[in-house]
Structures are given as structure tokens and as C-alpha cells.
């Protein structure tokens, strides 16, 4: 909901920028999903948010895409889903 609307608003704003100014913005080297155990969010919501970020911003090849996970709240299946979405780092805590 709200996070995706915020990203879409940023995307609309970026479309209003000139090509010159958007060329000056460096690609993202890190994306971090943290605080409040985001891994307990439904998989489709995480996928939607990450997809919106990827559609809105340039992402560096090899960018670190991290999600915080509580070891007691995820399964092997959830971990597989997270990796298949594009997360390449897990922060356990």
C-alpha cells in the first residue's frame, strides 16, 4: 500500500526531471528492508515493493539487497522465496 504509493510518486517526479539531472543520480548500490521484521510481510507484498524499487531506480550490478529476518519467524520456503525475488543478503537478528 503506502510504500508502493510513495515509490510511484517518486517515479512520477523523476519523469518530470530532465534527462540531464537523472543522469547525474548514481545507481543504487544498496537496498535495505529492515525494522519491524519485514520478513514476516507476505511474500507478494515484498515482491511488489522490490519490483517498484527496481522499476523506479537504476540499480548497480551486484547491488546488495538485504532483508532483516528473525530466525524464529521464517522457513526454508520463505528463504527460497526471498532469494528468488532478488534479495542477496539476509541480516539475522
- Helical percent range? 40-55%
Strand residue percentage: 15-25%
Number of strands: 3
> Which structural class matches the secondary elements?
alpha/beta
Largest sheet: 3 strands, parallel
Number of DSSP helices?
4
* Beginning-to-end CA distance, first to last residue: 26 Å
Q: What order do the strands of the largest sheet run in, or round the barrel if closed?
A: 1-2-3
Mean pLDDT: 84
Listing every helix as H and every strand as E from the N terminus to the C terminus, the arrangement reads HHEHEHE
Summary, kept brief:
The protein is α/β, with parallel strands linked by helices and 93 residues long.
Describe this structure in words.
The chain has 93 residues and is an alpha/beta fold. The chain has helices spanning 2-16, 19-24, 43-56, 76-85, and strands at residues 28-33, 59-69, 89-92. Helix 1 (2-16) runs parallel beside helix 3 and helix 3 (43-56) packs parallel to helix 4. It starts with a helix and ends with a strand. The model has no long low-confidence stretch (mean pLDDT 84).
Could you outline the blueprint of secondary structure elements for this entry?
Layout: H1 2-16, H2 19-24, E1 28-33, H3 43-56, E2 59-69, H4 76-85, E3 89-92
Helix pairs in contact: 1-3, 3-4
Amino acid at each position: 500500500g503506502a510504500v508502493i504509493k510513495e515509490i510511484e510518486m517518486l517515479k512520477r517526479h523523476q519523469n518530470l526531471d530532465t534527462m540531464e539531472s537523472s543522469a547525474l543520480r548514481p545507481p543504487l548500490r544498496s537496498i535495505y528492508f529492515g525494522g519491524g521484521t519485514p520478513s514476516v510481510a507476505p511474500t507478494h507484498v515484498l515482491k511488489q515493493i522490490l519490483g517498484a524499487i527496481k522499476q523506479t531506480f537504476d540499480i548497480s550490478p551486484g547491488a546488495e539487497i538485504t532483508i532483516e529476518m528473525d530466525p524464529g519467524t521464517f522457513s526454508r520456503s520463505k528463504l527460497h522465496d526471498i532469494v528468488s525475488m532478488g534479495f542477496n543478503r539476509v541480516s539475522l537478528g
